[in-house]
Amino acid sequence: MDSNNHNAVHRIKHISARAMTLSLILLASLFWQGCMVSYKFNGAAIDYNVYKTISIGQFPIRAALVYPPLQQTFENELLDYVTRNTRLRTTDGAADITMEGEITNYALSPQAVTEDAYASKTRLTITVRVKYSDSKNEKNDIDQSFSAYRDFDATEMLTDVQDELCEQISKELVDLIFNATLGNW
Prior knowledge:
By secondary structure, the chain is of the alpha/beta class. The chain has helices spanning 3-34, 69-85, 158-180; strands at 53-56, 89-90, 97-113, 119-134, 142-153.
């Protein structure tokens, strides 16, 4: 191979190596931008220099149909979720943020009616009204109802599945409430 061909091959290898290096740098920078960490914790972007405390009140059952353990199940789930997903300190007195409300609906309805006019599924729906007050910014205040449901086989007795369904529905309701209040900053 003569000297000119050798130099040409060497230049092509050098250009190819530079192009590959630049491509890798570009790809890495795009990847790095896609992996940027934002200051958001499970949907909550709370300014902890401004907000330090939260008061979570009781949620009494005001529904026509009453299942007494539901109140405690829901309140515990809400308190646990806020404690796990924020750095707000819970308090019983005056607080930067207050959450209170009531369970307004606990209802059963037939679903998936078969050809012989019997329901093959029953739906348990729970609705919670939440009053969220922000002492630092009234524009964040919310007074809203949230609903969630679970279907269960109509051959099952409600008493056999009620606790599990209430836990599942409470978790979903708490997620909805959190996203609409503390997660909506």
